[in-house]
Amino acid sequence: MMAGKLLGAATIAAMAFGLQPVWAQDSIKIGFISTFSGSQAAIGEDMRRSVDLAVEHLGGKMAGKKIEIVYEDDQFKPDVGKARSEKLVQQDKVNFVAGYIWSNVLLASLKTVTDEGDTILISANAGPSQIAGELCNKNFFSTSWQNDQTPMAMGEYLNTKGVKSLYVVAPNYAAGKDMAAGVKRTYKGKIAGEDYTKWPDQLDFSAELTKIAAAKPDGIFIFYPGAHGVQFVKQWVQAGINKTVPLYQVFSIDAITLPQQGELALGTLGAQEWVNDLPNEQNKKYVADFKNKYKVYPSYYGAQSYDAIMLIASAAEALKGDLSSKDKVRAELKKANFKSLRGDFKFNTNQFPIQNFYIQETVKDPQGMMTVKTIATAVKDGKDSYYQKCSMK
Amino acid sequence: MEVLIQVLNGVQLGLLMFLLAAGLTLTFGIMDLVNLAHGSLYMMGAYIAWTFISWSDSFVLGALLALPATFIVGVIVEVVIARRLYARDHLDQVLATFGLILFFNDLVRAIWGPAGKSIAVPPFLDHTIEILPGALYPAYRLAIIVVGTGVALLLAWLVARTRLGMLIRAGASNRRMIAALGVNIELLFSLVFGLGAVFAGLAGLMAAPISSVKIGMGDDILILAFVIIVTGGIGSIKGAFVAAMGVGQLDIVGRVYLADWLKAVMDPAAASAAAPAISQVLIYIVMAAVLVWRPTGLFGQRQ
Asked: Which residues of A touch B274 (CB under 8 A)?
């Protein structure tokens, strides 16, 4: 009788606070936002494949509970991404929201998920400087990087390589500005010129390439993810500038773009926190199973998405599937107690990873498929430049 | 030397925009139809060309086959949908043709899939040409300039020297009068609409190797096409040409020189932050200025 009353009171209290009676829930629901339509759909597809593979590797369960993934398409638009995020949190009542390729989509959706929805968000790609600094949030975790970090690693490498002048080209939006700021922070040579192009509708880089040819720099630095990277590399070769000025890139030549760039990209160098040939056991298994299943190489987008699912699994296992206390879930996530595909990493105070960055070269594998391989470590245990602005300590 | 190359870049962009705007200004000027779905014909041209190029393994043959196919698509749209809209007011036309955009985007998704396609530059144009000592220019872009100029000249001849052109000009100045004179206006409208579709399709397929073939590729560029026809004067081919060439050069100025010019008058950091923002609105500012000076556009019919 007494117990019945208590349980009743608890249920009423739970309803009054708008909480779901979590003990009644027999599955773990993860909302996953990415781009599944339009010109950048190939990136979303790579992420979805990796999430599916992670679920398969987990046997479809976390701590004995069924894993349920709800995929939503942001259509590469911030307003749509925000609306889809709201749907995941308010209507589907997911336990976690993960994914997000684009910084502008993530920035538009952040408050909707972390504050209004009080739901934990794990970015599997986008890492805008604002969220690493003043907008940092206890409900936000990243299994990728802060935007500036990868180009900063590239800048360090260009210094050691002795590249004397660099021309920087990037799209004019949140991530493009972060990437350019990143390379300029560490690169010590001369900046021969800078251009910011219209995003996302500018796919013609003739004017910028003409300026580059006239400026005669020792190298070009670009950030053009997905379809835009394909176009930049093609036009760099069409204009004949590849014969005189080498291309250094972040996020512009990868497993997504290489099938279309083909041999045009051979020999170009890029920076990345994960490469398909990193020699840890879990990575070998992931890459082998991915290639077996989908007949193509996975990209870092996929690897980061796989890590996001494995991070959630580590917290769910540690709490034996009881996700009712958000504080406990956050504390478990913060331990990063899982086997990351890039090798183990720790979370910084702003809940971005402290991790290595590598330099990769575009090559052809023995089967004739285009891919990238690690040639150097550019940064060891790198922290982003904004964590001190974050109020979490 | 760099300036010359940049001017060529602007000419190439302007010619592509002209091909798109020519059809739009004719349908607006002669049929009084606001056709938002004109960008969809640009997209259809590119997708149809992709299919024919993959099938025939030749860029030129694929492109030549795609043009009549786009003409047929244009005529079907005219007969089935557009014809019913001429007598309606502009708001109805905007609604119906916006519906057509959604229809075409989903049609493409159903036929070609969501991922987008890429058309390679034909091998015989996949190199650079030294147009002046030390000034290299991609052969494919030069080919766009040659073809675009050729088509513009052909159109000028068609409008100024042929019977069809005479009817088009007459239709643009007084639609009702030429119907009263016994011209088969239905046939004329179908022809003009189909012709507009061919030019849009040609622009789409020529732009494909430098940009990419994707769903909604015509929607972004359509706004620019409307700016061009309004600035040039609705119904005027000459106006569309002048405005398109102007927009091409203005785009290059915004992208290339604006930042340097601003640096002369303001702090360099502020200048490089302001230049991309200003370059995006530059053409709208110029359009507004032209319309204040000449409310019907550069070569529009005076009311």
From this structure: none
